[in-house]
Amino acid sequence: MNLFESFAELCEHVLLEASTTFDILKDPAGEWHPGADEIMDHLMRQKTIKHDVQWTSISPSEVRAQAKTLKTKGAIVLLCERGTAWLTVYSIEYESFQAYVGTTDKMWKLSLANRYGPRITFELPEILKLIKENVGAIQKAFVTQDTGRGAVSGLRKKRAKVAPREYSYDNVLLRFKPLWSKVVTQAMADVKGFYMQLIKHDAYDKSQKKIKQVRRLRDILDELEAGDDKALQKSLMPFLVTAVHMAGAHHYPELGGKWEMVWNEGLYQNVPRLKPATAATQLLSDIGQGDSIKLGSVLAYLKQELVKGA
């Protein structure tokens, strides 16, 4: 695993560790319960569950009684023999329930087919039976009456009104300056290594180019440390745009696009660009929404481009 993959994994780990819901999905050794990561990913990203939910531990024998008291925002987490289940009330009036279940490699919503299509709501005895059939007997259970779904959605809407959506190259450049500094520092180390190899083999003319490259990277690092955003637009931005285009093509090959060489005034040289840039635009949007995996890809491609031609 390289540095950038480690960083992406760390980002995901920090997000999950901040969640009280994730705390109850660990075993004593700190390992995820089967299906826990799939359930959590869905809940945090799709169901807007807050990170500081207050959970109460209950015994498996109490699940049926506690389920009958669930409110609209309540939920019961069931740690079962072969997986994890998330049980919620669908209709208090009609006493119907729904559930997501997860195993080590997938997550799905419980349903049964009938002549009108899949049925996703069930009476309590029926859904508990389905959970047992899919992921085994209940081993541990936790209940809450407030998962915070409405509060989190409201907070996101409020933030969206007062904060720009960081989907542009400018916002990405400014937002992740500490990461760019680390990448530039690592690129400098690689270029210095190439320089020493050239000197060792008496390739003095080529080594002079590497000296200029190190100086250029040093200038970019100074601009980052000084917060000279205007200078970074010319020095670092072209490499960042190329990295985003390459990462976009890597993650979204189905979006197509053709590589073309485009003249860049800041670098006084041609740079590769994907046209149309649909994949790059989608990648920017993903990064703006916190996708650390795709950010890690951009970091890797950025270092590659800086080593090649800063």
Structure report:
The chain is elongated. The protein has helices at residues 3-17, 20-23, 36-45, 63-67, 124-135, 149-162, 169-175, 177-200, 204-226, 229-235, 237-251, 278-288, 292-309; strands at 56-58, 75-80, 84-91, 96-102, 107-109, 112-114, 117-119, 122-123, 138-144, 258-264, 269-275. It starts with a helix and ends with a helix. The model is unreliable at 7-18 and 159-166 (pLDDT under 50). The protein folds into 2 domains: 20-162, no CATH class; 169-309, no CATH class. Helix 8 (177-200) runs parallel beside helix 13. By secondary structure, the chain is of the alpha+beta class.
Write the layout of secondary structure elements.
Blueprint: H1 3-17, H2 20-23, H3 36-45, E1 56-58, H4 63-67, E2 75-80, E3 84-91, E4 96-102, E5 107-109, E6 112-114, E7 117-119, E8 122-123, H5 124-135, E9 138-144, H6 149-162, H7 169-175, H8 177-200, H9 204-226, H10 229-235, H11 237-251, E10 258-264, E11 269-275, H12 278-288, H13 292-309
Helix pairs in contact: 1-13, 8-9, 8-13, 9-10, 11-12, 11-13
Brief overview, please?
By secondary structure, the chain is of the alpha+beta class. It has helices at 3-17, 20-23, 36-45, 63-67, 124-135, 149-162, 169-175, 177-200, 204-226, 229-235, 237-251, 278-288, 292-309, and strands spanning 56-58, 75-80, 84-91, 96-102, 107-109, 112-114, 117-119, 122-123, 138-144, 258-264, 269-275.
